[in-house]
Amino acid sequence: MSIILGIDPGSRLTGYGVIRQVGRQISYLGSGCIKTAVDDLPTRLKRIYAGVSEIILQFQPDYFAIEQVFMAKNADSALKLGQARGSAIVAAVNNELPVFEYAARLVKQSVVGTGAADKKQVQHMVKMLLKLPASPQADAADALAIAITHAHMMHTLIKK
């Protein structure tokens, strides 16, 4: 059995999703968003770090999975996203968690079956795979999809 924390980083809204994996079976433990409703970036990064640290304390995950940086149209946005990722990763490393990174395209492929899936498709498949009564918020669904991708990857590695 393992508990996996997935993170969909963002400088204003960071999604998180926590699942339990037992063999091939996955189950939902929790999800949500860390909201950083302030204007200055250093305070937002501090809130991301504190929020991820609190989630780690609450759920005691065994693995930390996060979306890789992708090239954005706006360089400033890409830099802020990278710093948000860094804050979350430091929280994981400070709590002795192994960090795994997955490309957005791989996450979509793993959960939906196509790397070109949109957010609605990801939300729907996360709802179905985890047998949730309703679709999670988009950023939380993306974070759960990242955790599910890690579960699939770990299961595939164990089989080999």
From TrEMBL:
Q: Which organism is it from?
A: Frischella perrara
**Which top-rank group of organisms is this from?**
Bacteria
Q: What is its main location?
A: cytoplasm
Q: What is this protein called?
A: Crossover junction endodeoxyribonuclease RuvC
Q: Does the keyword Ribonucleoprotein apply?
A: no
Its Gene Ontology biological processes? DNA recombination; DNA repair
Give a short account of what the protein does. The RuvA-RuvB-RuvC complex processes Holliday junction (HJ) DNA during genetic recombination and DNA repair. Endonuclease that resolves HJ intermediates. Cleaves cruciform DNA by making single-stranded nicks across the HJ at symmetrical positions within the homologous arms, yielding a 5'-phosphate and a 3'-hydroxyl group; requires a central core of homology in the junction. The consensus cleavage sequence is 5'-(A/T)TT(C/G)-3'. Cleavage occurs on the 3'-side of the TT dinucleotide at the point of strand exchange.
InterPro entries per the UniProt record, alphabetical: RNaseH-like_sf (IPR012337), RNaseH_sf (IPR036397), X-over_junc_endoDNase_Mg_BS (IPR020563), X-over_junc_endoDNase_RuvC (IPR002176)
UniProt binding sites for Mg(2+) 1: 8, 139
Which gene is annotated as encoding this protein in its UniProt record?
A: ruvC
* Pfam families given in the database record: RuvC
Reactions mediated catalytically: Endonucleolytic cleavage at a junction such as a reciprocal single-stranded crossover between two homologous DNA duplexes (Holliday junction)
